[in-house]
Amino acid sequence: MDRALEPMGEASVSHRYLLVLRFALMNLVAVSLTAAAYLQGWLNGLFAKYTLSLSALIFAVFLYGLALCGLKIWETSVALNQVNSGAPDPGSKAARYLASIQSGDGESRSIRIGMLRLQLSHGIGIVRQIANSLVFLGLIGTVIGFIIALSGVDPAAATEVNSVAPMVSTLITGMSVALYTTLLGAVLNVWLSLNHRLLATGTVNLIAALVELGETRGTA
Length: 220
Prior knowledge:
Layout: H1 2-14, H2 18-39, H3 49-85, H4 93-100, H5 106-151, H6 161-219
Helix pairs in contact: 2-3, 2-6, 3-5, 3-6, 5-6
């Protein structure tokens, strides 16, 4: 009988960190596409004089959100492994939840399950908020770009040949800032949102596994 159970145990161990592997694979593909775009010269506009500071700010916020998402995915994966093994660490949210439902009735368990969902959902909500902030930062760059573009336009000097070239140059610079920062914020928002969706899926799986374990212990 032990031999019959051995392959199942090995398969379980091989899939213990499936959530982390998906996170790593998704971001590896995204980084590869970014590197390919950079080599093609499509990202050169992000390193221009007026665009660089805004681009660096947007990218720094994105990296913070991605690092936070990666940490939460790791924590969720570890917790999911512990729940699936039936032995969550003492002091963890899973252990506290299991302890709280031991002496409760059906209504009390429902309340505890609702509280658990709220706690875990609130914990991952910050990643979504950071992803949304990337769009707003891109829109701020759009406004700044239009301000730069319009600052060089002088209607009184539009008829002077020598003044047209500087005005066109400033206009192009401002439009470049507006377009590149908007595009950067939108792309990084999609990138981080995909990671948040992966984290949300893992959180839902953790809640389902934890509730199932609690109900199994409660009816045992």
